[in-house]
Amino acid sequence: MIENTCQITPAERVRGNITLPGDKSISHRALIFAAIARGKSKIRYLNTGVDVLSTIACLQKVGVHFQLGRYTVNVKSPGLHGWTGEDKTAFNCGNSGTTTRLLAGLLPGQSFESVLYGDESLSRRPMGRIIEPLSKMNALFNSTDGHLPLTIFPSKLKGIRYTLPVASAQVKSAILLAGLLAEGKTHVTEPVQCRDHTERMMKMLGIPIFKKKNTWTVHALKRPIPGFEYNVPADPSSAAFWVAAALLLHKSRIVLSNVSLNPTRIAFLRLLQKAGADIRCSEETRSHEPYGDIVVKSSELQGFSISSRNIPGLIDEIPILALIATQAKGMTRIRGARELRVKESDRIATTVACLKTLGAEIEEHEDGMTIHGPTPLHGGTVKAYMDHRIAMTMAIAGLIASDPVNIEDYSVVDISYPDFFSTLEKIRQ
Questions:
Q1: Catalytic residue ranges
Q2: Which of 170, 194, 218 is the last residue of a domain?
């Protein structure tokens, strides 16, 4: 095998209790709000993947201090109005689209010029979707044809009314964060509800934000918000891979602890329950983000349909849902998912290519795919395409295939889930 290739061999079943990494989306935001707050904050159970570490590295550039422990991150910040930087301060966002887009909302209102850049994959992802609304707020940018590197000039921001052309939590968050430094009110209307972690965190911290129907309104931050303590729940997008393994392998049972059960994040579970999955959730509501345990058992599944209205709630789970669909009875249709073509990889093309290599009966469409099942999968060699969710999907495929699956560039999983492969070995039987 070539370097940086791992082999996953078939398993009979998976069983056990799994402690997942902290939710990646919430971790980014917890760090950013700790940097917005003035004083000391404490964040527990932070996701420690490479993407989240990129956010820490960037925030250090504006004068925020971090002390990383095993389970706790201590943060000390001068507050949003105390951020400092030299002109043309360079922020390396690595592979993280969330780091890039959220910082793009906060940096135009600062007194220094800054430059956001990233790796080859991030540099291919479109930034026009944040440049356009933020420019309406008087932000000044210089980009490379709508891509990174992105130069951001100091600007006097003003509030706007903006309707998202495509539901995107990152774009929505960038505009709302820019609104904290803008004159007047900022209104953002979302066509379909997408992740609301930013809004929930603003409410928790007493930042003036309001919702009427499907429009969020935020006011400028007039007074500093104090430091805070926050526990990050486990990541439901990471949980999805173990849910799939337990459903597809006979006599399996998995318990996933303290997982975020935010309604904008569990469409994956609801969809599979309707398809026949034995999935049970116990919810605790001791924080602004609901969380609880998820118990999954082996199940026989029916094919399912996903349309454009479902995509915002399933944006990270489409690759693993496609794998599940190869083992479900009947046809599965996934449409309205064109957004997947501009993720870490073109996730429509890469998902189809990998599953075809393993023998799946799958057809690619411009905005999705059609999958016929159940179809036995055989072994083979697949690429991760430098996409952590493709790599993890192919690892679960290796558990259910008839022969070993070799995954090239498997270590890309470190972006979100550094312990993924060690966890897989613990639960397989």
A1: 316
A2: 218
